[in-house]
Protein: Glucosamine-6-phosphate deaminase
Amino acid sequence: MQVVIVPTPAEVGRLAAAKIGHLVRGRPDTVLGLATGSSPLAIYAELARQVAEEGLDCSQVRAFALDEYVGLPPEHPESYRSVLMRDVVEPLGMDPSNVHVPDGSAADVAAACEAYEAQIAETGPVALQILGIGANGHIGFNEPTSSFASRTRIKTLAPQTRADNARFFDSPEQVPTHCLTQGLGTILDATTLVLVAQGETKADAVAKMVEGPVSSMCPGSALQLHRDANVIVDEAAASRLTLADYYRYTFANRPAWQRFETPRG
Structure:
């Protein structure tokens, strides 16, 4: 796992977006895994800037959403389909037909999950999966005790997760109780993982993910098993890392650090 500590939340987004932009420039039809929530917003804002100011072309990019609420119609403003269309697809000039989201309104949820897995397998592999991490260590909506071999499925949202997401709804009661999420096994199939975290509220989860034991009680710790997992955090989110100085030194002296930067000229 490569851990990168930067001064500010904006720099977290800039560095992750530089890596993604480099990938898209090299392969315009690359397959991305898209996360929602507040953590990746700085990534998408910086990618939108690259599109507007540097000519980054995302029109051929294919993408799969990490998760979706169960029971919200696709047109609901807080469905993840709507969020991705508003915050990612339109600003980046992506083709909506190339962006796939689990069907949280399906009559047969199990069949919808199987179909989503099959679509990822047919289109993929996912070249780069964007991730955030919850305060309880969840990635996607894989709550604590999720199997590391799990695939796309329905999950019950933990009370803490519903409380964290209540800010997006008019009242806590409106937050759905269930979701569809890519499983940890699905996530680990991606070629590269880029997880971003900002703020002190994520510090415990980041420390457990990076330096704690691999445990289903911290689903994010599954990244320790991946061959190319990149964790980009700001100083606040890194504040409980025991080896923070080592991570800074390692990144500063890494010969391949240029792969985080967008080539110029």
Remarks:
- The two ends are 30 Å apart (CA to CA).
- The chain has one domain: 2-255.
- The CA atoms of residues 48 and 92 lie 5 Å apart.
- The first helix runs from residue 9 to 26.
